[in-house]
Amino acid sequence: MKIAFLGPQASFTQLAASQIFPEEELMPQSSILDCFNAVMNNEVDKAVVPLENSIEGTVSMTLDYLYNFDVFIETELVMPIAHHLMVHPENSVVQKIISHPQALAQTYHFRHENYPGILSQDFNSTAASAKLVSENPNEKWAAVANRSAAKLYGLKIIHENIQDFEQNHTKFVVISKNKENLDLQLQKSSEKTSLIITLPEDHAGGLHQVLSVFAWRKMNLSKIESRTLKTGLGNYFFFINVASEWHPVLSQNAIDELIALKANVKFLGHYNEYIFAE
Ligand SMILES: O=C(O)C(=O)Cc1ccccc1
């Protein structure tokens, strides 16, 4: 089986992907969009992408593509994230800090306290930034990336554990064209159902009606996030997680009732959440 992931080697997504799929062929992609496209074009069977971070929140690109592409979520892995600042071994001066926007956001206060006025630059992934720094020994650049990236690309770590909050976790999801619930040999923490709901038209109590479908069935919502539909200010879709085992009749009735309310419902999957094994 072929598995796409946000690469290159030693990205956080690769660490997640190799734990979920230790035996499969992992195929690095240079963006989250490329991961979705690889699935849609059948170049791969599945892809692993980051969905949410405990400091910075949802990876909005992933949320948008879950809305836009015909894919399902097959499983989720929660992984602790430690960021380090690294430079080329021949360098110690830092004039620019490069990383994935999520990593830059998770280290914002560290950078502003320790490197005030130093430029930051978004790049495709933490590992891609580490690789870029290693390929440019004459530039005074530093990357925010993980320890495996420092080792693989031969960089020197000058500050360890620079994430702004000690508790830093990212959820990675496996997406594919199949409605599957992956059974992994990892520690399972919970089960959930993910839906994307679009309300029919703007009217008082519209969202309340949608939420009451879950409330009176005692279906516990563990996440609700609104995201712009990009059709104009004030137009949103809602990403909802229902935290429970799958009750076929109850869950189908809830979806049928949402449809009767003229909401648009996209079922993303019922799947397990696993915890990264250190
Ligand atoms: O850039 C990476 O290495 C990724 O896999 C995305 C990411 C960035 C920061 C924290 C978690 C995942």
Automatic annotation (TrEMBL):
Pfam families: PDT
Pathway linked to the protein: Amino-acid biosynthesis; L-phenylalanine biosynthesis; phenylpyruvate from prephenate: step 1/1
Catalytic function, reaction form: prephenate + H(+) = 3-phenylpyruvate + CO2 + H2O
Encoding gene (name): pheA
Keywords: Amino-acid biosynthesis, Aromatic amino acid biosynthesis, Lyase, Phenylalanine biosynthesis
Entry annotated with the keyword Transcription regulation: no
Presence of keyword Membrane: no
Membrane-spanning intervals of the chain: none
EC number: 4.2.1.51
NCBIfam families xrefs: PRK11898.1 (NF008865)
Species of origin: Chryseobacterium camelliae
MF-aspect GO terms: prephenate dehydratase activity
Name of the protein: prephenate dehydratase
